[in-house]
Write a structure and sequence with these properties.
Strand content: 15-25%
Number of strands: 8
Strand order of the largest sheet: 3-4-7
Structural class: alpha+beta
Radius of gyration: 51 Å
Largest sheet: 3 strands, antiparallel
Order of helices and strands: EEHHHHHHHEEEEEE
Amino acid sequence: MAARSCPFCAEEIAEEATRCEHCGSVLTTTAPEIPVQSVPTAEHTSTPLSSQLDGDTPPPRRGWVPGFRTNVWWKKVLAVWGYLMGSLMILMPLFSSENGLRDKITDAFMFSVLILPIFVVTTDFLEARTRLLGKKANSKGMRAMANIGVIFLSFILMGLLNGVHSPEYQARAATAQQEDAKVEEAKKREDTQRNEIARFEAEKKREQKRTDKARAKQERQRVATVEQDTGDQQQTETEAAKADDQQPEQTKNADKTEDRVAAANARQQEKRQHEAEKQATRDQKRQEREQRSAARHEHVAEIKSHTREAINNELHPLEMVDAHVETDEFGIRHIVGTVHNRSRFPYEVVQIEFNIYDVNHTQVKSAFSNVTGLEANGTWKFDAVVLTDVDPIYCKKSDLWGKKKLPGFLGL
């Protein structure tokens, strides 16, 4: 049987039907007679006369509000109930006393995102579905697929908004930002220390160069003074030699020998003194180099120690600080101790396990204890119950593991 769409409610009806079974509107199959005097002219209407006289053109709808576009009473009742419930769901978060104004507005917006797209597409409000599907809008299958798709997308969008707005996600984001700020601050402090050390070493080198230049200048002055004294001494010896020419030959030779010995001794002593000063200068320079080298090695060792400690904390974040056996008032033995989380991430669950041995070192039992929600850099006091009658017992830690709680993107 051929079918067509009702021009009033867009529902499918029979081709030969004269009245719509859904909205009750009267349908005409032929063009109505239009008196000549009643035909509007182009000066009084914006609709072309050819389209008004065309019998195939459907008449306009009675209204644009979903539920009131037809005269069916049950559709009106259902529409009024739906409008009231939808408005109540959107406005209800605004009257909540638990959240602040920003959270109230956000919750109302999320409910609007969930309800309004579903309302617009399922009711074909302002012909949105017809414009979206085009010629396929009259197919029931396409309408159903469009309604289901809009509902699915609305729930996904609401979940995304709820995840971003959740306090857990905001807390994790704030924690991650604080950790990043701490890391950046540590890097800045380390760079500042390196710059200070570099400036200190450069200043020390400049001071050493100034000291070396001053010592070289003093050495040149001393050498010039020694040479001048030597020249004066030679002049004095020459004058004495001239004076000795007048003395007897024997006395002259004896005096010359004594003078040569004294001059040789003076030059020898001066040479030894000069060598001693050079050696003292070399020793002082060597000590300064050793001190600088020791300072550099100490700084490098300190940096390596901090680096090894940070790597160890990341590779082995969980550490058992102490453990011992206690007996309660009922005679039940417990292994109690402390576990420290040295990492910068919290743990969803942490568990410690022990093997129980008898006197012959034979394993007879095992004991364990676990905890949930161990915070970053937190401490956990564990208590593992030992359910065995063997006495005495020996305990040995067999495993210590945990599952990190990393910050996620959505809190769904």
